[in-house]
Amino acid sequence: MYPDNVTNASKEFCNRILFDAFFIFLKKYLFFQGVVSLLKCKGNLRKGKEVVNYADTKP
Fold first, then answer.
1. Which residue among 4, 8, 42, 51 is the one 20 to 30 A from 35 at the CA level?
2. pLDDT, tens digit (0-9, with 9 covering 90-100), for 23-54
3. Cα 1 from Cα 7, distance rounded (Å)
4. Chain centroid offset of residue 45 CA
5. What's the rounded Cα separation, in Å, for the pair 41 and 47?
6. Transmembrane stretches, by residue range (predicted)?
7. What is the CA radius of gyration of the chain?
8. Residue 31 CA to chain centroid, in angstroms?
9. Pure H helices in the chain
């Protein structure tokens, strides 16, 4: 139906697009995970400070 080189080229093109999309998704996902973990860490630090302050106020 199509010449071989055309189907191969289109397959390669599709694979490249999928590959790029996967990498972009992976980067965004990892970035998102990093931001979430940073926010969680900040929240834990804030909680930790409150706990320390509470412990200091106790006689």
1. 51
2. 999 999 999 998 888 888 787 777 777 766 66
3. 10
4. 22
5. 10
6. 17-39
7. 25
8. 4
9. 4-57
